[in-house]
Amino acid sequence: MLLTKVSPDTDKLRTECIKLAKKYHPHDVTVLSAAQNYSPYQFIRLFVTAHGMKPIGNWQTHTYARFTDGITEKNHFFLIPMQKKADEHIIPRIRFENNYLCIDDTYTFILPQSIPYTTPFWYFHYDPNKEHHPFYSMTLNFSPSCLEKCVLCAGAKTGRVNNGMDNTLEAVNMMRSIFQKHPDAVNQLKSLAVVTGCFNTFTELKNHLSDVRYAVTKFANPIQFRVLEHNLETPEQYEMIIGELGYELFLTLECFDQEIRNIALNGKVGRKGRNSKHFIDMISMYAKYLEAQNDTGIKLIRVTYLVGLDSLEIMEMFFQTLASINHTLKKTKVIPWLSIFTAYNQAMKTIQHKAFGLEFIFKAIALCEKYFDKTLLAQQSGGTVEGYARGLY
After folding, report:
1. Domain containing residue 23
2. Given this model, what pLDDT does residue 270 score?
3. Residues in CB range of 73: below 8 A, 6 or more apart
4. pLDDT band at 337 (very low <50, low <70, confident <90, very high)
5. Does residue 162 have a pLDDT over 60?
6. Which of 56, 64, 67, 333 is the most exposed place for a label (fewest CB within 10 A)?
7. Helix count and strand count (H, E) for the chain
């Protein structure tokens, strides 16, 4: 079969989107409308994400890819999940040929992309728009042993968490070895994120974060420290982690439906699966803490959220709740950190919402933009333009 290449002309590219929508989603009004009105680059990315493909490369569960948006001239890095099982006559033939991603008989603008500098305990975040500074952002997990056994934890699958090591790794020695291996990181590193697993006590968490900050600043001078929240319960604890240690917290909700939380986050026994209403109290407490600070400028509270677990109705209920909190704030904004749920195996697929698909994704975007500023979402919600491969935006 002779393959044709998608024209870089936006109008012709939109025609290709409409053709795909009519062929594979002929009865989905939302998808047909998106094909006509969304950026065609965004449409094709989400089309590929929703349908998936047979994995290639190092990973057996997904494929990484990139493209340049011809409208914004920004680069995007994103994840293509495993192909959904369905009647072969309604599955698009998505695969790479001659280094370009193909959909049926058409070459697209999408290229394969590997991730450099990745180990089980640390990695430098790949940002497709900062390739001249590959060591700009780093994620650490020096506490790989976690007993929570959350189904959703990516670390449980990759070895960054739950890999059977009993103690936290010695931070100074680990950081020394990293900077010796990558000396350019000494000057390039500006953002550091800590993924910890769940600690038994707050004191253990605080000590670990203190050790990591001390170790990193012996060798480099990042301006931003982030941590995925773990069981911060009081204003005093917020003050210790934010005020004293200087970390920005990401509140790790993932989904709001408590039944799904009990399955995905080991909620009946695990701390991560605590009641979703408890998270609302934590968000409100965090917001009150930030509002009380004297420094000026809008501060963001990011709440991690996976699109594809909750129903659209529950998603809207959650967004309404966050918006109602925002209405009470002057110096702070709560915003969801939005990722598309991608299953690594059949067990994870069982918790994906039965209606998940391309139409679901576009309806989710509409709900996001109903309750949060569209520009803020595009810039601050963990998008593919910053290299967050599962980003909704």
Report:
1. 4-112
2. 63
3. none
4. very high
5. no
6. 56
7. 14, 14
